[in-house]
Amino acid sequence: MSVEEKGYFTEENSVEVVTSRNANARDARLKQVMEVVTRKLHETVKELEPTQDEWMEAIFFLTRTGHTCTDWRQEFILLSDVLGVSMLVDAINNRKPSGASESTVLGPFHVADAPELPMGANICLDQKGEDMVISGRILDTDGRPIENAVLDVWQANDEGFYDVQQKGIQPDFNLRGIFRTGKDGHYWFRAVKPKYYPIPEDGPVGQLLGALGRHPYRPAHLHYIIKADGFETLTTHIFDPDDPYIHSDAVFGVKESLLAEFRLKDDAVRAKELGFHGPFWQVEHDFVLAREKNANTESRAGASGTL
Ligand code: BEZ
Ligand code: FE
Fold it and tell me: Ligand 1: which of 72, 218, 222 to mutate, most ligand atoms within 8 Å of CB?
């Protein structure tokens, strides 16, 4: 039996020795994942040649990351966000047909049970911030309005915190709401102009950003999840293009197509109609949903079934 056949571990054959041990893996995808991860990880170690102390520092960093996770805080997702991995997974899983709105990260502050509100409702419940009215249409890729599309929207308050970060300080469901479109696919609601805010920075991920000379800020944005029967669910944001952090989002979530226009309006008549007391911000932004792939496949299967 040769040395290779005996499977003794050497610096040179490390990848083969480890991956060949997984030959009987029950799950082919797990086997493939571990083969790639092992190869890339060994490549990294061979290139960096860490000292034992450096390797332990990496282990302790990951340990602290795990210890920082609670029922409401996921430090590993935050790590994936600041490494650009969340956006990469999002991009791979949301390749859209031409003309459809682009997706971006979900983030940790969505809540599942926000109230459904009448179109035009004001989602700002703490009376803080600069008034804003947001409107637009939900369309298909042929430009037709989508009826019964459900928009779930949420944003941080004027001080850069989501309601769930300030329980007992902000009213429950402050700056959140669910809206349903009618026949014309139109939506509108009132809110306040969002501000930039830092991602949670009091844990190991914040320390890593600090050590790398990176700031923790996300540029001002509003979150949307838009669902409609027969269409792919769109998880996205709109961003303020004039935000100081628009070109350096801590989690790489900005895409050019997601920049909205925030216009400052000084129109006393319109302000009064909207229940505002002075100048206000106006944002108009349409969203285009891609048809569900399965819906197409089914209709194709149905069509071929009739041949
Ligand atoms: C957010 O936009 O809510 C967010 C996204 C990623 C990390 C932290 C916050
Ligand atoms: Fe956010």
Answer: 218
Q: What is the mean pLDDT of each run of 10 residues along the chain (307 residues)?
A: 74 96 96 98 98 98 97 94 97 93 96 96 95 98 98 95 93 97 97 96 97 98 98 98 98 98 97 96 98 63 34
Nearest ligand 1 atom to the CA of 107 is 5
Q: Does domain 85-297 have CATH number 2.60.130.10?
A: yes
Say how far apart CA 30 and CA 152 lie, in whole Å.
35
Beta-ladder partners of 195: none
Q: What is the DSSP string of 97-164?
A: PTTSPPP----TT--TTPPB--TT-B---S--S-EEEEEEEEEETTS-B-TT-EEEEE---TTS--GG
Among the residues of the chain, which ranges form H helices? Answer: 3-6, 14-20, 28-48, 52-68, 75-82, 85-93, 204-211, 268-274, 293-305
So where are the chain's domains? 3-49, 85-297
Structure pTM?
0.91
- Pocket of ligand 1 contains residue 108 by CB under 6 Å: yes
Q: Is 198 in the pocket of ligand 1 (CB under 6 A)?
A: no
Nearby residues of 170 by Cβ (< 8 Å), 6 or more positions away: 125, 126, 157, 161, 163
Locus of tokens 């709401």: 177
**CB distance 249 to ligand 1 below 6 Å:** no
Q: Which atom of ligand 1 is nearest to the CA of 251?
A: 6
What per-residue string of b and e applies to 172-186 under the rule 16 or more CB within 10 Å gives b? ebbbbbbbebeeebe
